[in-house]
Design goal:
By secondary structure, the chain is α/β, with parallel strands linked by helices. It has 2 domains: 37-166, Beta Polymerase, domain 2; 167-200, no CATH class. Helices cover 24% and strands 24% of the residues. It is built from 5 helices and 8 strands; from the N terminus they run H-E-H-E-E-H-E-E-E-E-H-E-H. It has helices at 3-10, 43-52, 75-84, 141-152, 187-194, and strands at residues 38-39, 56-62, 65-70, 90-98, 106-114, 119-127, 130-132, 155-157. Helix 4 (141-152) links the parallel strand 7 (130-132) and strand 8 (155-157). The longest helix has 12 residues, at 141-152. The protein is flat and about 80 Å long. The two termini are 45 Å apart.
Length: 200
């Protein structure tokens, strides 16, 4: 049917002589859910639980990625063991998740890689905004923890020089926190340092 015919039908008068409204668009189909994480129990998780007991929480696998929840208070000890004994010698990334309404509010996420075993491992350390620094285990944590502090405001205890790395030192707030109003930015900093009003 041609577009003009559809338009004429949509505007055709009803019994009372009033034009009818166009038909409502069909709702978009629901997005398919991805695979759910599955419980994981292997030699590595068994060794971790035997060594650290309650400091090891849920162990799962998501799309072939092993994920282990660890107590933040034991994070440095566990990381040292994973580097020295399990050969996870490379910290590929460190970031965080703001769960906002959950307590503890944050998860610090460490993604590890073993060159020796060609194996990856993700650690999740729930915390309330304070977490031990892993810089004594992997020096690359220095810059990654600074970025995490800058964006989320998580304080890494024992970090040798924790300060912002992306935003100016005087910037107020931490943009990846869920209660940070990204539209407002730091209007005061923009005004004082750029001499303009924020374009947001």
């Amino acid at each position: 049917m041609a577009d003009e015919e559809k338009k004429e039908q949509a505007q055709a008068p009803d019994a009372a002589g009033k034009p009818t409204a166009p038909a409502a668009k069909a709702a978009a189909p629901a997005k398919p859910k991805g695979p759910a994480p599955e419980p994981l129990e292997n030699e590595l998780t068994r060794r971790l639980k035997a060594r650290y007991g309650d400091a090891i929480g849920d162990c799962t696998q998501d799309r072939k990625q092993a994920i282990v929840v660890v107590a933040a208070s034991r994070l440095v000890d566990i990381c040292g063991y994973l580097r020295d004994e399990e050969k996870f010698d490379f910290l590929t990334d460190l970031t965080a998740v703001d769960a906002y309404e959950r307590q503890p509010r944050f998860d610090v996420i460490l993604n590890l890689y073993s060159f020796d075993k060609n194996e990856r491992l993700r650690l999740k350390a729930p915390n309330d905004g304070q977490c031990p620094s892993a810089t004594g285990v992997w020096t690359t944590a220095n810059w990654l923890e600074r970025e995490c502090y800058d964006m989320f405001g998580i304080v890494f205890e024992g970090h040798p020089g924790l300060k912002r790395i992306l935003l100016p030192d005087e910037w107020r707030g931490h943009p990846l926190r869920k209660d940070y109003d990204i539209l407002k930015q730091d209007t005061q900093w923009v005004r004082e340092n750029l001499g303009i009003e924020s374009g947001q």
